[in-house]
Amino acid sequence: MIADILSPRLILRHLTPDMLRASMQARLAEAARWLGAPLPISWLEEAAVMSLRLDQMENEPDYAPWSMRAMLLRETGQLVGHINFHTCPGHPYLAGRGDVELGYSVLPAFRRQGFATEALTACADWAVHTAGVKRFVLSISPDNLPSQQLAARLGFRWLERVEDPEDGPEDVLVADWPFQQDHA
């Protein structure tokens, strides 16, 4: 069992292969039992990322602790989103930009409440203490102003714009640990 990552308001719980399979097959009650928390129907919209992360875990067992985690409210257990590292540290696709790349999604009802910042910071701290990670990467659509602003507040700086075959243009941003935590 992979340990939860805790932050002041969140539990970042690893999503097991069984939980991901149940989710991808729209067996939400079963997936909720695996997770230990209820799942909204909108969870099914994340099937593509679930499939990608499940394939990675099955093909690279060391990736499991870096894979997809649910963002759960500590107080109620309610799902507010998910976060993951795209690979284990040092993957060649990063081309020296950083040690690991993070991705996240917050459910619409929970956006603009600081959950993404809290989850990113907690995962980054975990990566630093687990594997000595020093530089983090985010890839954000130029049109995603809230995520662009979040990245800026954490000290991420623009490195380049790339064309993602699935997501279109993305700004690649990098930040060194510790994040600057500019709350302006």
Automatic annotation (TrEMBL):
Q: Is Transferase a UniProt keyword of this protein?
A: yes
Q: Which UniProt keywords apply?
A: Transferase
**In its keyword annotation, does this UniProt entry include Transferase?**
yes
| Name of the featured protein | Acetyltransferase, GNAT family
Instruction: Report the InterPro entries cross-referenced here.
Output: Acyl_CoA_acyltransferase (IPR016181), GNAT_dom (IPR000182), N-acetyltransferase (IPR051531)
- Enumerate the GO terms in the molecular function aspect: acyltransferase activity, transferring groups other than amino-acyl groups
Species whose genome carries this gene: Aquitalea magnusonii
Gene3D superfamilies attached to this UniProt entry? 3.40.630.30
- Cross-referenced Pfam families: Acetyltransf_3 (PF13302)
Q: Which domain of life is it from?
A: Bacteria
Residues annotated as domain N-acetyltransferase: 10-178
PROSITE patterns, A to Z: GNAT
Q: Which SUPFAM superfamilies match?
A: Acyl-CoA N-acyltransferases (Nat)
